[in-house]
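Researcher: Structure prediction, please.
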Amino acid sequence: MSLAQVAAAARSSAALPLTLAVAAVDVDGGEAVGVDDTVVLPVASASKLLLLAEVARRLDNGGLAAGQPAAILPEDVTGGTGLLGRLSRPGWTVEDLAWLTAAVSDNTATNALLRLVGLPATARLAHDLGLERLTLHDRVRDERGPDVPPVFATGTARDLARLVALAVRGTMATPGASARLLGWMRANTDHGLVPALIDHDPYAPGFPEPLPGRLLVANKTGTDTGVRADAGVIVGARRVAYAVVAHWDVALGPSTERAAVHAIRDVGGALAAWAQRPA
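Model: Predicted structure follows.
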């Protein structure tokens, strides 16, 4: 599978009433492909990677402690994805909240971490890493009125893929922070987009090092009205960092949503074939 075929899998969506942005890079070889990868789009919870990166950076430099108690305030609690609002345990730590954010995209845990580190810190980290168009605009909300940002986060496929590639290379802030972020991503339970049609082992040891003849995946997805996003890394003979973002007009109906999901999965198959190609 060539880079051109990866791009073709994305361009096939041109006949669909949606935008499908794709960015992918061979982390070790340096080859890259992009289709609409500089278009700024809503990226939903895939942007939580930036928050997790800041938390990982602080845990690594001592700004935060993994076992530090992290309060959940009434304003943190929100619906949507997650488990925290449904569990009975009264106390949580910073790393607990990071695991919940990464594994089940817990919105309440996300809000608590955002309150702890602050939106300006995520903006500074994005600037320092060269991710100029990846932005967390607000906390997660059940409803968005006229007095708050219209979406939780925006970004480009290129910036999301770059963030993952930096972590895989060990240069996302520090090697320790990079490894921590990848470990959290490895715990993600949503493999319904890019990895859906990939024959991979979600539990095999050794990540992020390749295992002969087997594929490994670590990722973070995002779902919102008119948005599906997935950013991660596929590890095979090559380590391919990727981001795929679909955006469409919800007035077009559920058939467009189904088309978006199928298009993302097709791109995933092409990316997996690329990762399996001998380096």
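Model: The longest strand covers residues 239-248.
Researcher: Thanks, that helps.
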